[in-house]
Amino acid sequence: MTTPVLYHNPRCSKSREAKALLDDAGIDYQVRLYLTDPLSVAELKTLLKQLGLSAADVLRRKEADAKTAGLDSSSSDEQILDAMVRFPKLLERPILVTGKGARVGRPPEAIREIL
């Protein structure tokens, strides 16, 4: 079995809650600090496929960087993915990937489904 990966932002309360949930459950996992180690377009596409979501589904639209990147409701997945590479804050968090699938941890308890 592959080690679960938590895409984590330590400054985000929901991300901290998801991490605490994993710690409390005694789960061995890796942390990817995606703000300092941004995902590539290829990695984002793989993650989206695992989640079964579109780029628009995991876009933090209210972030100032969304406006800076010129994103709006008509933006394509490619435009959103390119913006997420340049502005990693645009990626919704937390996200957990396990051998059972991937989930956005909003609410953090949603990750329990794949533990």
Give an overview in words.
With 115 residues, the chain is an alpha+beta fold. It has 4 helices and 4 strands. The protein has helices at residues 13-24, 41-51, 64-68, 77-86, and strands at residues 5-7, 30-32, 95-98, 101-104. The protein has a 4-stranded mixed β-sheet with strand order 2-1-3-4, sandwiched between helices. β3 (95-98) and β4 form a beta hairpin. The longest helix is centred in the N-terminal third of the chain and has 12 residues, at 13-24.
Summary, kept brief:
The chain has 115 residues and is α+β, with helices and mostly antiparallel strands. 33% of the residues lie in helices and 12% in strands.
Number of strands: 4
Rg for CA atoms: 14 Å
Large-scale geometry: globular
Major sheet description: 4 strands, mixed
Helix-strand string: EHEHHHEE
Q: Average pLDDT, to the nearest integer?
A: 96
The number of helical segments is 4
Spatial strand arrangement across the major sheet: 2-1-3-4
Overall helicity:
25-40%
Strand content: 5-15%
Distance between the termini: 12 Å
Structural class: alpha+beta
Pick out the low-confidence regions: none
Question: Topology, pairings included?
Answer:
Blueprint: E1 5-7, H1 13-24, E2 30-32, H2 41-51, H3 64-68, H4 77-86, E3 95-98, E4 101-104
Parallel strand pairs: 1-2
Antiparallel strand pairs: 1-3, 3-4
